[in-house]
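hey so u asked for the seq, here:
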Amino acid sequence: MKEGSTQIPLLGDELWFPPATNASIDGLVAIGGDLSVQRLLLAYTSGIFPWFNEDTMILWWSPDPRMVLFPEKLKVSKSMRRLLKTDQFSITKNRCFSEVVDACAKAIRPDQEGTWITAEMKDAYMALHERRIAVSYEVWEGDRLVGGLYGVDLNGIFCGESMFSIVSNASKFAFIKMVEELQAKNYAIIDCQMYTEHLASLGAETITRDAFLEILKTTLAHNGNN
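ran it, structure tokens below
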């Protein structure tokens, strides 16, 4: 470490994280550990998420600022409003979680090389899915899976992980339908993690890490899952 840099803890078997506010300037909180259900839950409820490549150790992040969507601020364009009134797409939930994760892993993203959704990551989120913590939304065109997304549901806060689309507007359709469902359930925010123009076009915005952590703490305490 260079002089004046943040010392990033190396996690072992002990189940703990340093405070998210201890993150480095680029948002890195810790290195190592594992992807057990218990550690993942501790991470998400602490405002931390894993993101790493296949050839690196597990990296844990809490960026500042944080990209979020307040459900009531969802932006739906005129063209999407017209699409929503048609029967081009249909939506399901948790019908084929594994297929959605696979499709997200294969999605080509211009701003990155490869994928962070490794076999290890998929197994970890499958374990969360088996406990009904990780969920998926699937978009169908007829009987063909054409888009979808998955994430971690903390009961009041939804932590989005990834989305995919092989037909124009399919991922937007999934996102809008998910937000509408969560807004009806009075969810506080959808955590989008990092800024993208795609999410910004749907109404997502950046807030400070401190503001995000306060919303997370308040929501989890209110819903009794902290």
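The longest helix spans residues 170-184. The radius of gyration is 17 Å.
lmk if thats what u needed
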